[in-house]
Amino acid sequence: MTERTRISHRISSIAESATLKVDSKAKALQAAGRPVISYAAGEPDFATPDFIVEAAVAAARDPKNHRYTPAAGLPELREAIAAKTLRDSGLEVSPSQVIVTNGGKQAVYQSFATLLDPGDEVIVPTPYWTTYPEAIALAGGVTVEVFAGSDQGYLVTVEQLEAARTPRTKVLLFVSPSNPTGAVYSPEQTRAIGEWADENGLWVITDEIYQNLTYDGVSALSIVEAVPSLADRTILVNGVAKTYAMTGWRVGWMVGPADAIKGASNLQSHLSSNVSNVSQRAALAALTGPQDAVEVMRQAFDRRRKSIVAGLNQISGIHTPTPEGAFYVYPDVTGLLNRPWGGVTPTTSLELADLILDQAEVAVIPGEAFGPSGFVRMSYALGDEALAEGVARLQRLFA
């Protein structure tokens, strides 16, 4: 009899989320009394707006929300998502083309699981969010990284994508605004990439979770609005987490062609059934209620964005492109490597992140979590005072 492993190779090969790992370590140090300032977590520091919370309280008291509901989501929420998709992504869809998921991560996982067969390749512009390659691998796919550094503003070109395309390429992942870089593709760049994908018959999975968080008058044009003919081969992933400070409510969604959504709905019917009805009612209120709080948060992020970029770029050895979306900066820290700092000479951004945590009590995510070494991700979705103090500590450390 052949020897079997205790758990499957598929599951044992999954790496823990680097962002959550660093955030957990930072919180453990804080709980132990260390004055750690964490730029690790990608979540707003604001409370969920009151009217959304009140909608959830009312929903919790209503017995109809105490029972199973359709696995693909509450009909009225799917209608609201369809309306948002038309408003913000320029794509008219039926509510039947919407699935409500347990956060954006489930939508990402289901999108890859629905499209990929073993060996299918996914072109992934890099730096990438740490979950994408894991979700691709779980679906049997192969991640093909296409890297764009700080010299390109972290934006890949059509020429780079074409060089990475092979007969096994099935999907292009498109993310704008980006996590981890905050980079936003211009309308011209988005259109060129969309036309390239369309001409080559590729599917596109576009993660639009940050589409409402842009700055300096920049708009994150949806790839399906730029190239409408792509709509039959595009899955849009989105959710309420970032825009409405609802990370803990776990409501995301996927929108796409009828056959893909039917397949994903079948998967979800066995995987998780319906999302919590209380959370769905809260998400419905978020999408259909007043948007004033969203703008207040966006303006706060904008202020912090300018502050952190200015502060980091005062440090010799750090180059921080100005992000145009999301709430992250992605400093190029190669100028700090292979130099002694407090008796330690880091050679990678992983070692540099450890040094920063140990000597400055500041938590950042090393670039290895998102692709090549030489970078760190810092979220500026934390209080102004903590943000300023953290940057000041880095300025002292690397003076």
Describe this structure in words.
Belongs to the class-I pyridoxal-phosphate-dependent aminotransferase family. One of its GO terms (molecular function) is pyridoxal phosphate binding. Keywords: Aminotransferase, Pyridoxal phosphate, Transferase. Its cofactor is pyridoxal 5'-phosphate. This protein has two domains: 9-47 and 293-397, Aspartate Aminotransferase, domain 1, CATH 3.90.1150.10; 50-288, Type I PLP-dependent aspartate aminotransferase-like (Major domain) (Aspartate Aminotransferase, domain 2, 3-Layer(aba) Sandwich). The chain has helices spanning 9-12, 18-31, 50-61, 75-89, 103-115, 131-138, 158-164, 187-199, 223-226, 258-271, 277-288, 292-312, 349-360, 384-397; strands at 37-38, 98-101, 121-126, 142-147, 169-175, 203-207, 234-239, 252-255, 328-329, 362-363, 365-366, 376-379. The relative contact order is 0.17. The strands form three sheets. It has a seven-stranded mixed β-sheet with strand order 2-8-7-6-5-3-4, sandwiched between helices. A three-stranded antiparallel β-sheet has the order 9-12-11. A two-stranded parallel ribbon has the order 1-10. Helix content is 41%, strand content 13%. The protein is an alpha/beta fold and 399 residues long.
Number of helices: 14
Rounded to the nearest angstrom, the distance between the terminal CA atoms is 62 Å
Q: What is the fold named in CATH at topology level of the largest domain?
A: Aspartate Aminotransferase, domain 2
Number of strands: 12
How large is the radius of gyration? 21 Å
Helix content: 40-55%
User: Would you identify the CATH H-level superfamily of the largest domain?
Assistant: Type I PLP-dependent aspartate aminotransferase-like (Major domain)
Strand and helix order: HHEHHEHEHEHEHEHEEHHHEHEEEH
Number of domains: 2
Strand order of the largest sheet: 2-8-7-6-5-3-4
Largest sheet: 7 strands, mixed
**Structural class label:** alpha/beta
* Average pLDDT, all residues: 95
Do you know the CATH architecture of the largest domain?
3-Layer(aba) Sandwich
Top-tier CATH class of the largest domain: Alpha Beta
- Model regions low in confidence, pLDDT < 50 over at least 5 residues: none
Give the overall silhouette: globular
β-strand amount: 5-15%
